[in-house]
Amino acid sequence: MPEGTEVLAGLEMGGIAVVTALGRRTGWPCAFVRKTAKSCGTARLAEGADVKGPGVLVVEDRAD
Fold this sequence. Notes:
The protein is an alpha/beta fold. About 20% of the residues lie in helices and about 25% in strands. α1 links the parallel β1 and β2 (about 30-35). The radius of gyration is 12 Å and the shape is globular.
């Protein structure tokens, strides 16, 4: 994990499972980020930990 990481952010669908596993392993707070904000409920783009600031590590399941 990069130095300075404080929050793990998983991009919707694939990244959520990876971030959940990493969060359990590291104890770091997690956030789940949508492609677009929901039109109902909380109407937020991200749920969970605050994703503002330089310590956010964005995780995706894509492998190139």
